[in-house]
Amino acid sequence: MIKILPKLLLAVLFIPMTTISNAQDRIVAMVSQDGNLSFRVTVSEFYVQISQSGKITEYGALATGNISYDVNGRVDKIGSTNVSYDVYDRMEKIGSTNISYNVYGRVDQIGSTNISYSVNDKIDRIGSKNVSYSVYDKVDRIGFSNISYNVYGKVERISDSEGFIIFRNKSVALDE
């Protein structure tokens, strides 16, 4: 027993470091009162928010330092975090994290988070979470969590068993 104790203590000390180095991108779903959906993917130094149709609607980065712009007026540096764009004027990299797009111009990967779309051009999977929509084109399930609506088509209940859905009173920007 005494010989095992130092090995067990050493193993316990290294568990937190392993968890931190293998951390996944954090995904938060935002559902508006009208049932529109957007996702915020947070990586260590920044976040990107995408609409249910795969357009980047917002982004931000931890900033200590100057903000600089390129000749086209786009942000190209936030503090020490560089932002770069592809030939189609879409964001392709923030810091060391790549953002890629499918042939239809929708975001299909942010860092290690893969995103796929349904035949109706809406996100049907983000990371490990499946997304489904009702016949009225409103989100009704994300992962193991359910969203239900009242007779007026407004969100009435969110059963978020995984703790990652945020209700937004205002309508989510669809594709600004």
Could you give a quick summary of the protein structure above?
By secondary structure, the chain is mainly β. The protein has one helix spanning 4-21, and strands spanning 26-32, 37-43, 46-51, 56-61, 67-69, 75-78, 81-85, 91-94, 97-101, 107-110, 113-117, 123-126, 129-133, 139-142, 145-149, 155-159, 165-168.
Q: How is the secondary structure organized here?
A:
Blueprint: H1 4-21, E1 26-32, E2 37-43, E3 46-51, E4 56-61, E5 67-69, E6 75-78, E7 81-85, E8 91-94, E9 97-101, E10 107-110, E11 113-117, E12 123-126, E13 129-133, E14 139-142, E15 145-149, E16 155-159, E17 165-168
Parallel strand pairs: 1-17
Antiparallel strand pairs: 1-2, 2-3, 3-4, 5-6, 6-7, 7-8, 8-9, 9-10, 10-11, 11-12, 12-13, 13-14, 14-15, 15-16
H-E string: HEEEEEEEEEEEEEEEEE
Query: Which regions have little confidence, pLDDT < 50, spanning 5+ residues?
Result: 4-23
Task: Assign a percent range to the helix content.
Answer: 10-25%
Assign the structural class, choosing from mainly alpha, mainly beta, alpha/beta, alpha+beta, or little secondary structure: mainly beta
Task: Compute the average pLDDT.
Answer: 84
The largest sheet, given as strand count, sense and whether it forms a barrel, is:
12 strands, antiparallel
Query: How many alpha or pi helices?
Result: 1
